């Protein structure tokens, strides 16, 4: 009896702990906004300030109850972004194209600056000066407080940069078109973290020293959001499917295939994917691990006559979720924090990497400099590869120096180049290979996809796909770092030149045959959806 009670309590505690997970972006408090047309938002150390462009008021709001503590007139008639400099409010006015310094007691205008652009939206104070966003030009600008001119301009993360906030290290920007909130590195403009907004029309943002605040103009609600609480990633939109992988060898002519070894990569459980069941056919195979610890099912055949077909495969019942990682560079440690075993194994050279090539060495040295943060180094390599390569299938997989000099490459060649540069700079890197949902949930894939990963202390192996991230918008580039959709079943985790898979992924084969015998290989994966969980 007591065992049943204990089991029941354990289940309840597990359920409760799961419901209390406080991932970045999770709403921990909300209450109605003070008006129906709220835009700017800031925090003065004790209370929130909210701008309303219809009421032409700036409201001071209690962060515990949502009660309006004070209301002062806005300096103009289209108040947008708000910021707090430690003593006074700043308000960007879209109608007058001005930025005003405001006395928080009675609304007296203390200083007026010409705006650096035409369509003001967000405003943030970084401890020394102001940042302003423009939704039409899609820019975020750091301004000179003496005259309002822009001294630094960043490309906006996406289509409509609305709210801005500064947390002491990073800028945060909301976008009402994508319904997302972005964490931005203020020197480079790189988007580091992508969060789902709490409502369909996110506008103003604020930072209270611990959490973010967001105001949603459609929901007329103020939200307090987790910035960081130890969660490394979030899963959602789980897909369940039966994946059938087929490797087929056919021969034509005269004679026979004397010996054939077919190797299939074995998919494993990962944070975002669960292999519920896995069966191989035929059953006569052995499971072996290569030097990268990748498991492969190895099938052996002999004396296969011309005209016969040899089929090896597996059927997997899998659940795959979207995964969104929350990578804070300041939490990624240093190169010295990487375990020696990981560093030694995944910084080794390979024929496709050629990290000893002077060309690779110079690029890695110039990019990394004296930097010790593995994320920062890897991000520089990511940007270099996507900026210097154009996706194009040239045929074959060339080594990294050849591909970078040529300027075009396949997904595999993008991966080789990125891995080579990371390894040359001391950052462990590898590739993963997958089968992919192509279009409809029930689909066939005979193209597959490969992309690289890097090892980050405190995070482990993280996706960094410069080919997928070869996009014009910072937000779209960021979605290929630490993020992966549920379209991919990863089968392979490799470092290259595997004893069983060679430089291939998903599958590989080796054979000897009689002369004048043509051997053809086909490999494909079929997806059969079972159900979709939300």
Keywords:
534 residues, mainly beta, six-stranded antiparallel sheet, four-stranded antiparallel sheet, 7 helices, 36 strands, 14% helix, elongated, disordered N terminus
Secondary-structure map with pairings?
Layout: H1 2-19, E1 27-32, E2 38-43, E3 47-52, E4 57-62, E5 68-73, E6 79-84, E7 89-93, E8 98-102, E9 109-114, E10 120-125, E11 130-134, E12 139-143, E13 150-155, E14 161-166, E15 171-175, E16 180-184, E17 191-196, E18 202-207, E19 212-216, E20 221-225, E21 233-253, E22 256-265, E23 273-281, E24 286-289, E25 295-305, E26 309-325, H2 340-346, H3 358-368, H4 374-388, E27 390-391, H5 400-406, E28 408-409, H6 411-424, E29 429-436, E30 443-445, E31 449-456, E32 460-463, H7 474-478, E33 483-484, E34 488-494, E35 507-513, E36 517-533
Parallel strand pairs: 27-28
Antiparallel strand pairs: 1-20, 2-3, 3-4, 4-5, 6-7, 7-8, 8-9, 10-11, 11-12, 12-13, 14-15, 15-16, 16-17, 18-19, 19-20, 21-26, 21-36, 22-25, 22-35, 23-26, 24-25, 26-33, 29-31, 29-34, 30-36, 31-32
Helix pairs in contact: 3-6, 4-6, 5-6
